[in-house]
Amino acid sequence: MSSISIRNLFAMLAYASFDAGHLDARTIGSCTFERPLDLLARLLDGMLRRLHRRGIDRGYQELREEGASPRGALEIDRTIAQLAQVRGALAYRFDELTADTAANRVLRAALRLLAGATEVAAEVRGRLRAHLAGLHEVAEIPARAALRLHATAPRALAEYRFALRLARLALEQLLPDGGAGGTEAHALLRDPERMAELFEAFVRGFARHELHGVAEVTAKNLSWAATSEDPRALALLPAMRTDLFLRWRDGGVTIGECKFYERSLSRSHRGIDERLRAGHLYQLSTYLRAAERHCGRRPAGLLLYARAERELEEVLVLEGYPLRVATIALDLPWSELRARLHRLLTNDQGPDSRG
Question: Which domains, from first to last, does the chain contain?
C-alpha cells in the first residue's frame, strides 16, 4: 500500500467522524485540511463541544481515609497497624465518582499543548482554553506521561473514544520525537481491517458533505430475491449492505463499494495476467440487481480502491449496468485527492443510471 500522509489520515478521520454523526457539517466546513494541527484542534473542539453538552465522563476512584465516621469498607488491619483507634479514628476505603480519570487527563494534556500551538488558528485556541477551564477537576500531567497512560473510554461512548484518539494523535504530533514512536497513528496505519473500515467511512462521509443538496447518501440494506416455506432458511441469508448508496436529485442511483487492498487487480496462477477481482464484481453486480428491484431504475456501479501498485480507471457495462472501476491514491496532496474523489463520485450520474 502506498504511503498515506498524516495530513490525509487526519482528513479521513474527519470525514469518517462526520459520517458517524460525531461532528457536524459546520465543524467539517471550517477545517483547514492542509494544516494538520489546526485540523486536529478543530476536530477536538467539535467533539468536546458535544461532550460538554452531556457532561464529561466520570469514573470511580478508590480513596483511603481515616475518621470517626467511616464510610465504605472498614480496614481493620490498617486501623490496628496505624493505631488509629487511639486517636478515635478508623481507617476505611470508599469509591468516589470523579472527573479525574486517565482519559480526561489525556484530553487535558492535549488541549494544553494545542492551545499554545501557533499553527492553530487564534479563535480555535480560545475555544480550546475554554474547554480546559471545563476540565478544572482533572489533574494536569506532562504530555509524555499522558501518552503512557492506559486510558480507555466505555464502549457505549463512541464519541469519547474518538475524542481520546484525537487527543493522542495531537500529543504525538506536538512532542518533538512523536511521543517515542507515534503509536496511535502508526497502529492505525498498520491495521488493514481498521483502515478498510476507515476508508469506507471516509468516502461515505466525504460524499455526505460534498454532495449535500445534490444526492442523498446512505449505506443501504438491500433485499435478496429469495423465497422459502421455511423462515429459518431465509434467516440464513447474509446481509446485503452497500458501502455507498447515492440517490441523485433526479432519482438516479449509484451503488459504490470501497476496497482497501494491497492490489486492486488479481494475478493468474502463473502470476502473469492481471484481472479485476472476480469476488468484487460478483458482489457489486448482485447489489446492482437488488438496487434495481428496490428503485425500479437501472443503477450505476462504482468500485473504488485505495490505490496500491498502479493507477486504474476503467469504464464498462457489466450485465447491462454502467460500471466504473477506479483507484484513488491516499498519498496525493489533499487538494488533488479531494478533486479526484469528487469527480469519481459524480461522473456516474449519467443518463444510463437514470433508468
Answer: 6-57+102-189 (no CATH), 59-98 (no CATH), 193-353 (3.40.1350)
